[in-house]
DNA sequence: TATGAATGAGCGTTCATTCAT
DNA sequence: TATGAATGAACGCTCATTCAT
């Protein structure tokens, strides 16, 4: 895990059934998608779907878990690469968030959108994962403030602003558009640096 | 309209049925909410609901239209108050967005969340309203850049970042929390100023 | 309740929907009957069925409760009529059981057949009602033995034999057959008297 | 066949798959048991089940046929042992029925419970077997009445009472209880003798 | 023999909506 | 205005069964 290439999004690790489900859930939402629609999208019969997953809910849970886990592992790898330099920590963290939301647009969109559709246990797990992500950024902001590198009054408020900003990418990014994930990530890193008073 | 007090959120103009509907849609989503649930939440019988609205869809449409219209009128009023000062234009615009997303938390949340649940015609209308909002901010950013007041490379990208940042408020703001809408708005104005290179 | 006419089976107190359900459940069993079949038998659409009952299970529960309650109230009335004469107590009790299983053939059949199809709570209630019935007879047998009127070694074993004997009526009785409920009941009373050593 | 030891229930002739099926059918009924449940109970995969039996229905049919055949052969052997003594004929017949319903509790329970779950052809066969059993007892009762040994008015009614009485054993008998099959059978023989006016 | 993977049909239930009153 | 009663269509899911391997 330590040697993970967190900037590499070439192979999509999702099994094909889940990839179809992601597309369909993004288009119509969890409650707006029927199991028949999911099955058709995956080229399966309805019972075929249930052979692979115990329930509709199990499908969205698998998606959420994979999404949160993927982002978390990339974030840790980025953090490790940054070493002790807090400015670099912030830069790589935002770069990681932005790349993830651009490259894994649909997955990231679901992860932030369908939290409320989960049943209690899975919801608690996903919320914990989301909070874990948030605290990673808050810690960076606080460290930078402590060291005098950042001008940050309320770290948790700013963290939320930064995170929603990046989340937004998954709402409008299109591979057909003029911007590449890399250039977007660079821009967002600069945004973040301005927000903490650098630059 | 020109003399509207865009900072005043005292009276909630929503009729009680719609207010109940907003709460329920926020909790479970449009497709996750049944008409029975809506009727029960509003203290009505099912046919009673249909006396007031032609369909479930008509309810979410009314909500979306009211939300977009309220924000739009406040935005115009803020813009008028700012006059020709582009820094003030940006400040009041962001203040207006932030106040709206804090004071009209649930309404704003629905407006950004349930776009995909609308039928084509209503969806087109809401998307147009969303874009209109976005262009208002883009124009401000471009004007500031033209005048040399702002350091903005890609105005539309930054506008989206600013807007999603503010949208985020509606996801985590709570009246029970330590922050008032006013102080949040002030903070977000400062964020915006930093993002355009002021401060 | 004390003045109930326990020999009178003229009016069937079941609402029409339940009467249809009884017939269908008798023919195919609870698990062998679909809600669509029930609805069709009752001349309703499927949601129409669910307007009156919360679930398929609620229907069988209503039937079981009505059956057990009806038999119990008749049994108490018969017991009251018998006064302190233990021979009469036995006679009227068996007469009551036999009349019930002949006149309420299908209802009685379900009550003894579908116990295992009930969910735990309802099952416990029905089992308690069945046991209550059984203990009423056991007490009569024990009283008769104590007073030297009956020659009974194992009262609870004999009670079960008597009860299953009567239960059997609901399996073969037909109003088209040559025997009337009244004559059957008389015969079964004589069976019971022989079994306790009278006659 | 004539030298069969009809009192011996030591070895259960059922193949293991059928024995598991009997247990499951008794617990949940034929329609309440899925083929998946059957396969799991037998430690087989679903296609493994279908290797041994052509269908779910074929399983219950095999069970019913074995049950009816076993009881029939024992009844004939008991009858042969009794010779021409009609009192002994009745005694051994009832002993045979009681022993069977206690020793083959579950099998006997299914035979009387799941008749309605069979498809027409198999159902007709099982009903014929049941009637054949019944006529054997009716004939004994009539013979006893003709010879003046029994005081029986309606032989077929009494036969049904006796048979359901014995059938009841399979509903409440437990090997963990205080009574042995043998003592139960003795008691039921005495019941029968009383019912025909002996003793 | 044995099983992973699949399916058409049907399950119990709920959906948004309507209508007679 | 208001509602008890109803419905066609669809929901999530499971049924008994099959087939390629």
Structure, explained:
- The structure is a homotetramer of 199-residue chains.
- Chain A is mainly α and 199 residues long.
- Chain A has a domain at 63-195: Orthogonal Bundle (Tetracycline Repressor, domain 2).
- Helices cover 71% and strands 0% of the residues of chain A.
- Chain A has 9 helices and no strands.
- The first copy, chain A, has helices at residues 16-28, 35-41, 46-52, 56-82, 86-103, 105-113, 120-146, 155-172, 181-195.
- The first copy, chain A, is elongated and about 60 Å long.
- The two termini of chain A are 33 Å apart.
- Chain C binds a DNA duplex (21 and 21 nucleotides) through α3.
- Chains A, B, C, D: Residues 34-53 bind DNA.
* Number of beta-strand segments of chain A: 0
Quaternary state of the chains: homotetramer
Question: Share of helix among residues of chain A?
Answer: over 70%
* Unreliable parts of chain A: none
Shape annotation of chain A = elongated
Rg from alpha-carbon coordinates of chain A: 18 Å
Quote the distance from N terminus to C terminus of chain A.
33 Å
Which class do the helix and strand fractions of chain A yield? Answer: mainly alpha
Mean pLDDT rating of chain A: 95
Q: What order do the helices and strands of chain A follow?
A: HHHHHHHHH
- CATH hierarchy, class of the domain at 63-195 in chain A: Mainly Alpha
For the biggest sheet of chain A, the summary is: none
Annotated CATH homologous superfamily of the domain at 63-195 in chain A: Tetracycline Repressor, domain 2
| CATH topological fold name of the domain at 63-195 in chain A | Tetracycline Repressor, domain 2
The total count of helices of chain A amounts to 9
Q: Biggest interface pair, residues each?
A: A-B, 30 and 30 residues
């Amino acid at each position: 895990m330590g040697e993970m290439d967190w900037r590499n999004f070439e192979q999509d690790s999702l099994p094909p059934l889940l990839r179809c489900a992601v597309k369909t859930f993004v288009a119509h939402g969890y409650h707006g998608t029927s199991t028949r629609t999911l099955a058709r999208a995956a080229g399966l019969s309805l019972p075929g779907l249930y052979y692979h997953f115990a329930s509709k809910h199990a499908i969205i849970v698998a998606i959420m878990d994979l999404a949160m886990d993927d982002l978390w592992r990339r974030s840790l790898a980025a953090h490790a690469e940054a070493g002790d330099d807090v400015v670099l920590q912030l830069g790589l963290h935002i770069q990681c968030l932005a790349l993830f939301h651009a490259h894994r647009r649909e997955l990231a969109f679901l992860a932030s959108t369908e939290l409320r559709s989960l049943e209690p246990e899975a919801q608690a797990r996903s919320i914990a994962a989301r909070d874990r992500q948030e605290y990673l950024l808050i810690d960076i902001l606080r460290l930078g403030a402590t060291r005098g590198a950042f001008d940050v009054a309320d770290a948790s408020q700013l963290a939320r602003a930064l995170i929603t900003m990046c989340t937004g990418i998954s709402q409008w990014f299109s591979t057909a558009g003029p911007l590449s994930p890399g250039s977007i990530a660079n821009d967002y890193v600069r945004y973040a640096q301005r927000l903490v008073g650098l630059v």
